[in-house]
Design goal:
The chain contains 13 helices and 25 strands. A hairpin with a 5-residue loop joins strand 4 and strand 5 (about 120-130). The chain has helices at about 1-15, 20-25, 30-35, 40-45, 65-75, 105, 245-255, 275-280, 300-305, 320-330, 385-390, 410, 430-440, and strands spanning about 50-55, 85-95, 100, 110-115, 120-130, 135-140, 165-170, 175-185, 200, 215, 220-230, 240-245, 270, 290-295, 310-315, 315-320, 335-345, 345-355, 365, 380, 400-405, 420-425, 425-430, 445-450, 455-460. It has 3 domains: about 40-260, Thrombin, subunit H; about 270-355, Pdz3 Domain (Roll), CATH 2.30.42.10; about 365-460, Pdz3 Domain (Roll), CATH 2.30.42. It is an alpha+beta fold. It starts with a helix and ends with a strand. The strands form 4 sheets. Strands 19, 20, 21, 22, 23, 24 and 25 form a 7-stranded antiparallel β-sheet that branches. Keywords: Hydrolase, Protease, Repeat, Serine protease, Signal. InterPro entries: Chloro_Bact_Ser_Proteases, PDZ, PDZ_sf, Pept_S1C_Do, Peptidase_S1_PA, Peptidase_S1C. GO terms for molecular function: serine-type endopeptidase activity.
Amino acid sequence: MIVVRALIALFVSSLLAAPAAAQDRLVPQSPTQLRLSYAPIVQRVQPAVVNVYAAKAAPRNPMLDDPMFRRFFGVPGKQPEQMLRSLGSGVMVDASGLVVTNNHVIEGADQVKVSLSDKREFEAEIVLKDSRTDLAILRLKDVKEKFTTLDFANSDDALVGDVVIAIGNPFGVGQTVTHGIISALARTQVGITDYQFFIQTDAAINPGNSGGALVDMNGKLVGVNTAIFSRSGGSQGIGFAIPANMVRVVVASAKGGGSAVKRPWLGARLQAVTPEIAETLGLKRPSGALVANVTTGSPSAKAGLKLSDLIVSIDGQVIDDPNAFDYRFATRPLGGTAQVEVLRGGKPLKLAIALETAPDTGRDEIVIKARSPFQGAKVANISPALADELKLDSSIEGIVVTDLPDNALAANVGFKKGDVIVAVNGQKIGRTADLDKLATEGSRLWRITVIRGGQQLSVVLGG
């Protein structure tokens, strides 16, 4: 009897100690409850989940256009265009026909089609692409009806252990429903997007599920499925979804008519707190985001953020690392301020940082067309918005490669997106016009200084 009382006391104390939000969840109490079905939820949300088909022309070997080559090797005169096709899923987020999916599903696509759960197909146009979140927004063409949509859940309310349902088109077999639980929250070491703060689930997610819905027991969108961890290519119970609060930001930008996502600009570079840094700062554990650089004139500078400040929370939400801060800050609505708590010299201090976008004037983005090692590269002047987007040091000088087709000469000689071109043949490159002029003039030898990943490289190329 004493043992029973002890167990009861332990059970009661554990309930009292549990977070209030966890007490709202119910455990099945009988075999009857175990026979309950998810069918009502699925029937309600399934029409809002779509299949996405994307196609693009495969790179063509230029030798196939040479008559001598075709005749020598017996290649027929006219070769049909080869198409590369990808498939994924999407979620209807506006009744007018607005669909959110993963950017990697439609990246580089020449044609995009959307298939509804009732088998109807529509041509779609790409409204917005955001590689930083791996999200894209599509709009169905030539539609006059209203479509079923999913409402957004507040993904910050999700708890580990919550039951969730994944809906998508795995392996192209057709719309499929799987279920599981939220296995973990705030996964930041996944390496998929700039904003790493994923919901992890054991609901079966496979190739083709990308862009599909992860819904809660209220039938609301808690996340967009985007990746799996797998050694075989199939589901191994580790899937990742972009939280609904981040999806909401991208959708809002598209609804506002923008072709790019508008998000707050911090104007500071952060770094993780290592055990060694934590010991130096007198912290019990390595957590928070350490300020490594502050851009002059940025919102953080105006708010008084300083080098070596340790950010520990934003609007009352604890910050464990820079990825957590990036996500929390990026999902704040523009306008107003964010209350950021920092430790400065071991003492707490609160700063109000304005939630405003980074200036994006004077890019002067051009494609280098002249025969040179830079041919085919799209380059731009470094604006604060571009530096923030590409995670460049705000004090860096030069111009940056913003796009690079696979068949461009610049790609063949080794340039990469994000490379900062500092100098060419001893001349400092401060504007895109400087590089365009040098490329047009030509040279037999090219001495080029580039900054890549914070490291300065010098190369010499023949003309």
